[in-house]
Write the structure tokens for this entry.
Amino acid sequence: MSKYKGKKVLVVGFGVSGVSVAKYMTKQGAKVTVTDTKQKSELTESVAACADLKIEYELGKHNEATFKAAEMIVMSPGVPLNIKALEGVRELGIQITNEIDLAAAALKEPLIAVSGTNGKTTTTTLIGEMFKADARPAYVGGNIGKPLLDYLTDAIRADVVVAELSSFQLELTQKVVPAVAVITNVEPDHLDRYPSYEAYIAAKKRLLQACDKNTYVVLNYDNEITRSFGQDCVGRLMWITKKNPISIGGAFAENFNGCYYVSAEKKIYAKIFGKEETYDVSRIKVYGEHNKENFMAAICAVRAMGVSPQAIQKVIEEFRGIAHRLEFVRKKDGVFFFNDSKATNPQSQLKAIGAFPTNPIILIAGGKDKNFDFTPLADVVRQRCKLLILMGEAKEKMNRALGDFAETYLVGTFEEAVLLAFQKSRNGDIILLSPGCSSFDMFRNYEERGDYFKKLVHQL
């Protein structure tokens, strides 16, 4: 019998994650109530997905009495933990958890958990593809694609579960003990949700704290924050770096486990607990030097789980990237269009601009401000961007930080931005959508923003 049978479960937030929890919990025999500040008319897809389930709804606002009457509260990642309805709930001893933790507690298969500010979606996807190339089925979900609980609800079978985990999804985790944990890097992000950068770092570090002595932990030596995480690692540490370990020297070189990239040779060298291997990345099909870090992180993760070097090399040569991440859209009249809608922070923008070291760049940026400082972009904008086209809520702030370093236009609509970019472009130019902001001032998510950009570009 399910331990949730008859339990009063409150699901807070009725997006993709909330729907997954509602389905799982009703199947377990729980008494499920769903609450969301949105009205029913704004949640038609979610309500339709649960139409055949016995669920109570409290929509349009959160009722504090319902929170206090629950035996378990399951928070969706999009709902901050400082909402008024949660005040005083912990003191009553009510369990507060999330979808990731529920899934992790029930999973029988090994879990590979991937987090980080940038690169986590590409790394997660690569890991899934490498397992697939080795004829070993992997379920890829979490913050990318499908919720983890769907794996259990739909009774899917796989050798391994690969999950991208955002900082929001890590905030409440208690039961996650991954077989492999990857943290690609930590840079300032989501500063509209967290009181400080330190609080955001602490949320990311929860993945490291979830590991035990048997967990393979993959960290980026070249990132200051993840390098510092190495001091607190209790698991089997593996590093990725673009530096030759010998040049770093000392104990690091002597005990090196992981991957390093030699740019001049276009090779990734792997030393995985005594085994030395080389991977040729000269025929890689994705743009940007930063992607070498994603490949290295994926190699460490899958080699730790026994995926063959042959399968890894196959993926290195065939992988074409993911949608909305430096995605080539089209070439028109000698002008190249790239969709990097997934770039929702300045560090992502830096990597996107750096992916094109020679062609002049027309950068389309802006959106909902997440309380970022855009001044670190000044040098690269001055050196690489012939034009800045700014839009959305953050355009004035970005203009103050960057407007002196390139010819800059502030526009009112997305359509205007694309049309102006094309009008101002010349043969050999790159028009790059890399917003550096979230999409919520104009779109539901970065996917919708990227798809609309592609639509406008194809209409030119």
About this structure: The mean pLDDT is 95. The radius of gyration is 23 Å. The longest strand covers residues 385-391.
